[in-house]
Amino acid sequence: MRTTIDSLLSWFRTLPASRRTLLILIAFCMGGLALSWIARPTISTGRGGFPGTSSFTPIPPGNQPDAELKAQWERIKQSRKAVNPATTAVGGNAIGPDTDESGYATPIIAHAAELAVATKEFAHSRSTLEEILERHHGYAAKLRMVGQPAASTLTATLRVPSSEFASAVTDLKTLGNVEREEQTADEITQQRADLEARLVNAQNTLGRLQGILAKGGKIHNLLEVQRQLANVSAEVARLEAERASTEHRVIFAQVLLSLREEVKQPAESLTAEFRAAAMAGLSDALRAACPLSYSL
What is the pLDDT along the chain (296 residues), one digit of tens a residue? Predict the structure, then answer.
């Protein structure tokens, strides 16, 4: 081995300087290629020749794109639930649009009716009205009764649960002769959705302002934040009151009832009828005698 190396060195010295320089460059290039091949990353192949586990550094869990996308999707679903009126209920009765078997949302409807009834037995109809309200779990939001010798009248604003609306109106018609009837069904689905969206936005703004105020800062900035916080708080209170009023309209239907008493005119006596007939006959006789006197 040593003899071979010595012979190669002797042969290398006998070469011209240009060739020796070229051979040195070639040797450096070959050495670099050999080192790069040895230091290459090893990738194990899985089943079917596809790469398995690589030597790349994994992405930290906090920066994974899938985790961020999942978090954004959860926030979108939560915001949809907040805007969806089906999530709100009062007194255990959900007033939001429910879905039927076909998957379509049931609209939110506020029912109302107006009735004008005439009765010959006013006192009995008045007591029957209280029984109807008790039977259908309703109440009189406003009631005004005027008793007169000629005829008594009653006007009332009644509230009954929406589930009892149709049967309550049917029972109210039995109080007497129905002179006028009107029913309305006001769909407020879109109105309720818009109200919920505005309320959610106002609540989010209120939370951000409260966070800014808690961090502190310059005096004039804090005063401006307090002013905006007062305005947004008032807006949130107004929207919550409007939502409560809308919920009440849907849960309790309104019935405007007008009840009047029918009074029979007293029958004239036989003497009064004879007197009226005599007066009518005398009047006719006088009218017939007047032309004769003028002709004479």
Answer: 567 777 777 776 777 777 777 778 787 778 777 777 776 655 444 444 444 444 333 444 444 445 554 555 565 455 444 444 444 443 344 444 555 554 456 788 889 999 999 998 888 999 999 999 999 999 999 999 887 766 789 999 999 999 999 999 999 999 999 999 999 988 888 888 888 899 999 999 888 888 888 887 676 777 888 888 889 899 999 999 988 888 888 899 999 999 998 877 655 555 666 677 777 776 776 676 665 555 55
Residues 6+ apart with CB under 8 A from 185: 109, 110, 111, 112
Q: Which residues of 54-64 are buried (b: 16+ CB within 10 A; e: fewer)?
A: eeeeeeeeeee
Report the C-alpha gap between 106 and 183 in whole angstroms: 20
Residue with tokens 């007169």: 148
Provide the terminal-to-terminal Cα distance of the chain, rounded to the nearest Å: 184
* Residue 256 CA neighbour count, 13 Å, CB half: 8
DSSP state of 188: -
Crossing angle (nearest 10°) for helices 122-135 and 165-172: 170
pTM of the model: 0.50
The Cα 287–Cα 74 span in angstroms is: 99
